[in-house]
Design goal:
Radius of gyration: 33 Å
Number of strands: 12
Distance between the termini: 107 Å
CATH class: Mainly Beta
Number of helices: 4
CATH superfamily: Umud Fragment, subunit A
Order of helices and strands: HHEEEHEEEEEEHEEE
Number of domains: 1
Helix content: 10-25%
CATH topology: Umud Fragment, subunit A
């Protein structure tokens, strides 16, 4: 075998070795074990619980006092973090200060805020007026049947609430003004039934 042939064969072997060495190593895929998955699940669950405990709550509409806006059995999400009542808001009222709303109701009520602190609410001949001006109420189910006239001036920590189904609603016309501490929060979304999912808009008269 000639020296030239030996040199060529040696070069071919060296190139083969170098080619093998230059192949990139396969990247190792991260492995997820059961403890990693469990930790993520616990953290997500804790976040959801905290979110719904502090910022958002859920309640169920019971009865027909808010028809046609809301129906019996519908589920609502309630915003209660740093909430300040405004006219037209749909709110959930809870019996937390019995000296304010008495013992008539033992479970949360869904009503609409009509008057806020400092307002004078007048109901006469089926018409609701705030500070001497009749308000437009496109959300009510039907015209309110005339009843005894009522005039109330609200304290700064009070609201006047009524159901949209005026002729079938127990509200501030019966129990008087509601202390703001009784308000659980503002209804912001109807989440169930799913085909009626709605963001509840503000409706000031």
């Amino acid at each position: 075998m000639s020296e030239e042939y030996k040199d060529q064969a040696a070069q071919d072997v060296e190139m083969t070795v170098n080619t093998k060495e230059e192949k990139p190593a396969k990247e190792s895929k991260p492995s997820w074990d059961v403890f990693d998955i469990a930790e993520i699940f616990v953290l997500c669950t804790a976040f959801i619980v905290l979110f719904f405990s502090v910022f958002i709550r859920m309640t169920v509409v019971e009865g027909d006092s808010m028809t046609n806006t809301l129906q019996d059995g519908e589920y609502l999400l309630i915003q209660d973090f740093f909430y300040t009542p405004s006219r037209g808001d749909i709110v959930v009222v809870n019996d937390v200060t019995k000296e304010s709303i008495g013992k008539m109701y033992s479970k949360p009520l869904v009503k609409r805020v009509i008057g806020i602190g400092g307002d004078t609410v007048e109901i006469k001949d089926g018409v609701v007026s705030i500070n001497g001006k009749a308000i437009d109420e496109p959300y009510i189910k039907e015209e309110m049947r005339p009843t005894d006239s009522l005039t109330v001036t609200l304290e700064e920590n009070e609201v006047f609430v009524m159901g949209d189904n005026r002729n079938h609603s127990g509200d501030s016309r019966l129990i008087g003004p509601v202390d703001v501490r009784c308000i659980v929060g503002k209804a912001i979304v109807r989440i169930y039934p799913f085909d009626k999912f709605t963001i509840l808009s503000h409706a000031e008269g």
